[in-house]
Design a protein that fits this description.
The protein has about 325 residues and is an alpha+beta fold. Helices cover about 45% and strands about 15% of the residues. The chain has a domain at about 40-90 and about 130-300: VC0802-like. The chain contains 12 helices and 8 strands. It has a 4-stranded antiparallel beta sheet. A 4-stranded mixed beta sheet has the order 5-8-7-6, with helices on one face. The chain is globular and about 60 Å long. The N and C termini lie far apart (about 115 Å).
């Protein structure tokens, strides 16, 4: 009798344990999207983003976003890039160039064949102008760009419009924080740093031992600069070593100005990769291309403009009353004879 009760009890416990295990496995299966249901297209996009990786020679820009909102941020930045790609570089949302398509008129049959080919994922172009790369670090994405896209121009225009977005309806993102343009990517080693710096800096500065160093370089000869390195998940190169190495490659005709430089050298080091770009002084004025802060500043500016101001006439009248000489309060209290 006791054994039967134990068996029943044991069986019940086993059943409960199995149910709990099954329930916990179901909960775990929802991970990665906070348990929310995803459309097939969203799932395909998620898998595509996870399957790509950063490579030496890449250009584009880094994206920081809210924690656990990487895929939402990826959706936002893809939408933004498609819009600005069409506006700035004549790129259609499917990655083709409008100008190139207009040059060669095609018949209906050819157009249908191209449309069918575009619908097949295996026939999608591998050299798409925009590709989002999901890093294995929270809150970080990389947008790989290809010609004719200029990442410096693209990011600057996105942030410029964010500066003017005083109305919430004009905001294009909720989960994106900061954009950092990258002109070239290389290996995060001493040699990689030197190779990338030579290619990137030569377009903006006179370099040491450059054959043209003694020649007149126009405005570039006198421009000042500052170096702003950022290191993530990397321990090989040290911050001060990176700064000293880059500064040693630039001609002495350029002066260091940490307060108000003409140009800023951005260096982003992530794990085994190193990226670099040179931006103008507006980078500081635009909150270092932090879209979230630009939206907040635009909202504050709009709110300050809507606040009612006190009329100056009332203030002047109050000041005049205060300036008038007042009699003795005790004599004013005495009754008149």
């Amino acid at each position: 009798m006791a054994s039967n009760e134990n068996e029943k009890a044991t069986g019940k416990r086993k059943h409960n344990d199995a149910s709990e295990a099954e329930g916990s496995s179901l909960k775990r299966s929802k991970g990665g999207n906070q348990g929310k249901w995803m459309t097939p297209s969203h799932k395909a996009k998620l898998q595509a983003v996870k399957g790509r990786s950063l490579e030496v020679g890449d250009t584009g820009f880094w994206i920081t976003c809210q924690r656990q909102k990487e895929m939402r941020a990826a959706d936002e930045i893809l939408s933004i890039c498609e819009e600005y790609g069409q506006k700035l570089f004549n790129i259609n949302p499917d990655g083709t160039n409008e100008a190139a398509e207009d040059e060669e008129p095609e018949d209906i049959e050819t157009a249908i064949e191209k449309e069918v080919a575009a619908m097949k994922s295996e026939n999608k172009p591998k050299d798409a102008p925009f590709e989002v790369l999901k890093m294995n670090v929270d809150c970080v994405l990389f947008m790989r760009t290809r010609p004719p896209v200029d990442p410096l121009l693209l990011v600057r225009e996105i942030c410029k419009d964010a500066t003017a977005a005083k109305d919430r309806s004009l905001r294009r993102s909720r989960f994106i924080n900061k954009l950092t343009p990258i002109e070239l990517t290389g290996k995060a080693t001493e040699k990689g740093l030197e190779d990338v710096a030579k290619k990137v800096l030569s377009g903006h500065f006179q370099l040491v031992n450059d054959e043209t160093e003694e020649k007149d370089a126009g405005e570039n000869k006198a421009c000042s600069y500052a170096i702003r390195p950022t290191l993530r998940a990397h321990t090989t190169l040290k911050r001060i070593e990176v700064i000293d190495k880059v500064a040693s490659m630039i001609s002495k005709s350029h002066k260091v100005d940490l307060g108000n430089p003409d140009k800023v050298i951005i260096i982003e080091i992530f794990q085994t990769f190193l990226g670099m770009s040179v931006v103008d002084r507006e980078w500081e004025a635009m909150k270092r291309y932090n879209i979230h802060e630009l939206y907040a500043a635009a909202s504050k500016s709009a709110a300050d403009a809507e606040e009612p101001k006190e009329p100056e006439n009332e203030e002047n009248e109050e000041n005049e009353e205060d300036s008038k000489p007042k009699g003795d309060p005790e004599s004013e209290a005495l009754p008149t004879p």
